[in-house]
Amino acid sequence: MSGADLDKAGQLVAVVGPSGAGKDTVLDAACRAAPWLVRAKRVITRDEDKGGEDHIGVSDEAFEAGLAAGAFLFHWQAHGLRYAVPVSVVAALKEGKTVLFNGSREALPEIMESYPELRVVVITTDRETLSRRLEERGRETAEEIEKRLERGRIAVPEGIPFMEIDNSGRVKDSVAQLLAALGQVETAA
């Protein structure tokens, strides 16, 4: 499905950045503050009880079946897992909602080929905060954390416009920045 197939009423926003920058925290808080925002629940080839964001966990076989059935608006692979944004978000876009999804910087060029109107927000944080967050969540070894810290410096692919939000401080401030970037007004703290 291409962006041309969607009504222009809503906007689709990819939120990207290094693991541990707080993308999920900012997305969840923004959706609580602004009811016109919709967060896409991603389909991931990871068990639902493995931690991290609220997602739909599927096997590789079920992911393949979803691809074959046209159930995904976009899909990509990263960190040994497969990710997809379900096509069901199109209904919210047609209703004029802003749909946010936690995306992948590396997948942006392909996603933008099919949806050139995509807006991109990059959530960043300083290296010290990122390191602390990764250690606190306890999902990676020290070596894996160091690799993630190095990958965190990877930029958005050239030619893709984006807005950057530094999430090193208070989540409330990051949410206010996100809502301002989306042209919305914060309704709740």
Write a brief structural summary.
With 189 residues, this protein is of the alpha/beta class. The protein is 34% helix and 22% strand.
How much helix is in the residues?
Answer: 25-40%
Q: Please report the total strand number as a whole number.
A: 9
Shape: globular
Overall pLDDT score:
85
Portion in beta strands: 15-25%
CATH topology: Rossmann fold
GO molecular function, one term: ATP binding
Protein name: Ribose 1,5-bisphosphate phosphokinase PhnN
Catalytic activity: alpha-D-ribose 1,5-bisphosphate + ATP = 5-phospho-alpha-D-ribose 1-diphosphate + ADP
Function: Catalyzes the phosphorylation of ribose 1,5-bisphosphate to 5-phospho-D-ribosyl alpha-1-diphosphate (PRPP).
Features:
189 residues, alpha/beta, Rossmann fold, four-stranded mixed beta sheet, 9 strands, 34% helix, globular
Structure explained in plain terms:
Keywords: ATP-binding, Nucleotide-binding, Transferase. Residues 10-183 form the Guanylate kinase-like domain. Its EC number is 2.7.4.23. This protein has 189 residues and is α/β, with parallel strands linked by helices. It has a single domain (3-177), classed as Rossmann fold, CATH 3.40.50. The protein has helices spanning 23-33, 60-68, 89-94, 108-114, 127-137, 142-151, 171-181, and strands at 11-16, 37-39, 43-44, 56-57, 72-78, 81-86, 98-102, 119-124, 163-166. The strands form 2 sheets. A 5-stranded parallel sheet has the order 2-7-1-8-9. Strands 4-3-6-5 form a 4-stranded mixed sheet, covered by helices on one side. Strand 5 and strand 6 (81-86) form a beta hairpin. Helix 1 packs across helix 7. The protein is globular and about 40 Å long. The mean pLDDT is 85.
